[in-house]
C-alpha cells in the first residue's frame, strides 16, 4: 500500500521540519556571553517563579520532563517554537517596519522552489482539489515605486490542510513556487484555496493541546516571502475572511492587515484576489541591537 497525505504522522512531519531547519545557514548567532547569560537567567527565573507561585509538584515536574523528551523524540521543536514563540520574535524584529505587515514563517518553508516567471500556476496535481484562486498584485517601495524583478515565494497547504514534503504521497513541489515580478512590479499566481491547518494531534505538541484543553487549529493561510535588492525580506501569511480561527489561531499569527478580500471570478470559476506588497528599505546592520541598548539603562 502506498501512503497518502492522510497518513501523515507527527514524527514524520517533525523529522522533516527538523532537517529543514538544520539545513538553514546562520542558525548560530554570535551572541555575546553577557547577553546569553542575561537571557538564560531571565527565562530560568520565569520558570522558577512559576514553580513557586503555583507550588509545582514532583509529579508535575516529571510530566514536564517526559513531555520535553517527547518534543525532541517527535522532532517537534520546530513546530513547538514556531507555534508558541515565533510570533513574539517576529513582532520585535519587524516593529520598525513601515511597509507591509509580516508574520511568522512557521516550520514548513523549503527554499529553492521552482521558478515560474511573473504569471503562472503553482505546481499542482492534475486533479488538485480545492476552489481555484487567482492571486495577483504589485510589489512597491515605501514611496510607491514599483519593484521590477521582486521575488515572490509562495507555499501553502492543500485543500485537505497538508504541505508537500511534510506529508507523504504529495509531489515534491506541490503548491510551492517562486515568482518574479514584471517591469511594473506585478505578478499573477493561479492556485487553490488552502484548508485550515491542524497541528498534528498524535505528537508531543498535540498532547499539550489536549492536556490543556486548547484547540489545534490555524486558520487557512498562504505563506509568502517577498524580497528585492536593497529591501528587507518580508515574510508574511495571508488569511481568508470568515475563517473560524482568524480570531484564535493556535500560533497567534493573524493580523487584520493580512486578511484578503477574495471575490468570485467573473468567469464563475473560483475566486480572484488582489494584494499588494510594500517593502521597507534594508535595515542598517546592527540597527536593532543599537535600538535595544538605547533602552537598556532605563
Ligand atoms: C503551519 O502551517 C504554520 O504555518 C505554522 C506557523 C505552524 C505550524 C503549521
Ligand atoms: Fe502554514
TrEMBL record:
Domain Intradiol ring-cleavage dioxygenases: 135-163
Cited InterPro entries: 1_2-CTD_multi_dom (IPR043029), Catechol_dOase_N (IPR007535), Cchol_dOase_actb (IPR012800), Intradiol_dOase_C (IPR000627), Intradiol_dOase_core (IPR015889), Intradiol_RC_Dioxygenase (IPR050770)
Gene3D superfamilies for the chain: Aromatic compound dioxygenase (2.60.130.10), Catechol 1,2-dioxygenase multimerisation domain-like (6.10.10.40)
Record flagged with keyword Transmembrane: no
Keywords: Dioxygenase, Iron, Metal-binding, Oxidoreductase
Listed cofactors: Fe(3+)
Coiled-coil parts of chain: none
UniProt record similarity statement: Belongs to the intradiol ring-cleavage dioxygenase family.
NCBIfam families xref list: catachol_actin
Name of the molecule in the record: Catechol 1,2-dioxygenase
Organism: Tsukamurella soli
Taxonomic classification: Bacteria, Bacillati, Actinomycetota, Actinomycetes, Mycobacteriales
